[in-house]
Design a protein that fits this description.
The chain is an alpha/beta fold and about 325 residues long. It contains eight helices and ten strands. It folds into two domains: about 15-155, 2-Layer Sandwich (Nucleotidyltransferase, domain 5); about 170-320, Ribonuclease H-like superfamily/Ribonuclease H (Nucleotidyltransferase, domain 5, 2-Layer Sandwich), CATH 3.30.420.10. The strands form two sheets. The protein has a five-stranded mixed beta sheet. The chain is elongated.
Length: about 325
């Protein structure tokens, strides 16, 4: 639990809020839901939008719930979205200092909703809590049901939809090289957009595992995208592929524990990947290292080059 930064001097009504939101598909039609409980009183809210994303629906649920409060309150907001909880408690102050830009200079996605949520966060005394979704919590399950109801209402009353703005198509090839286990490690991603030169981003660490480097290559590739995009992400790493497509959502629901109960390895990197995926429509695809696309091979060559340069630099610093 993370306490709010502002203390109120007057006694405020206590309110418990559960929120949820989602799309099917993502991006696409979405719904949001919220349950507000204060003493014997309970209020349920739901709604939806035709062209939206999972993240926007999660944010909208929190905004709608807090906007329903008639006066400043002492609120506990429970969400199963790490994007919402981490954004409002960890990232938002840095975003504001940079003029609503991320550390890499790109605009914060959904800044209209983040600004609205930030204003409400200053009105109320809020504790932001995360809970595992679909884990039997009655109010969390009800918020999820309300979000699905909000989405269903759109379908029942659907009028011809306006055409959704096309997402920019992007193809990213990621590779990594580790000179030891762990050892000096390099990562690289080549980024291909229609009608634009191929871009490459790369870097190295003095000591890392190949899994960490492969994972960071995907993160850095996605960090280069300035607008929501439809991404084909090619990786030769089964660790990254299975983690992103099969394990990540389960890890988040399980409090960053594996199915065996052990802590998830490279958790900070997986959390960052979850964040940078953001509102992109990402399709993960496996690529055979022995029969890789030329741009995948180019990324591997770059990763090897920066890993070797890092190893030379490290040895030079260690020399007497």
């Amino acid at each position: 639990m993370i306490q709010k930064r502002v203390d109120h001097t007057t006694t405020a009504p206590e309110v418990l809020v559960y929120t949820d939101g989602g799309c099917d598909p993502n991006p696409g039609p979405g719904g949001w839901g919220a349950v507000l409980v204060s003493g014997p009183h309970r209020q349920e809210l739901s709604g939806g939008e035709r062209d939206t994303t999972n993240n926007r629906m999660e944010l909208t649920a929190a905004i709608k719930a807090l906007s329903a409060l008639k006066s400043p309150c002492s609120v506990t907001v429970v969400t199963d979205s790490t994007y919402v909880r981490n954004g409002i408690t960890r990232w938002i102050e840095a975003w504001k200092k940079r003029g609503w830009r991320k550390a890499n200079g790109s605009p914060v996605q959904n800044d209209d909703l983040w600004r609205a949520l930030d204003r409400l966060d200053q009105v109320h005394q809020i504790q932001w809590q995360w809970t595992r979704g679909h884990a039997g919590n009655v109010l969390n399950e009800r918020a999820d049901e309300l979000a699905r109801i909000g989405r269903a209402r759109l379908a029942q009353g659907r009028r011809p939809r306006s055409k959704q703005p096309a997402l920019e198509p992007v193809t990213i090839y990621t590779r990594a090289s580790a000179l030891g286990s762990p050892g000096a490690a390099g990562y690289a991603a080549t980024i291909e957009r229609p009608g634009q030169p191929v871009a490459t981003v790369s870097g190295a660490w003095p000591s890392a595992t190949i899994n960490a480097a492969e994972l960071y290559a995907a993160i850095k590739g996605l960090q280069q995208l300035r607008t929501p995009s439809r991404v084909r992400m090619f990786t030769t790493s089964s660790y990254v592929l299975h983690g992103a497509t099969r394990w990540l959502a389960k890890w988040e629901r399980n409090g960053w524990r594996t199915s065996k109960g052990s802590p998830v390895e490279h958790r900070p990197l997986w959390e960052e990947l979850s964040r940078v995926v953001g509102d992109h429509d990402v399709h993960w695809e496996a690529m055979d290292a022995a029969d890789a696309h030329p741009l995948s091979t180019q990324a591997l060559q770059e990763a090897r080059q920066v890993a070797r340069a890092q190893e030379r630099d490290t040895k030079g610093k260690d020399s007497p």
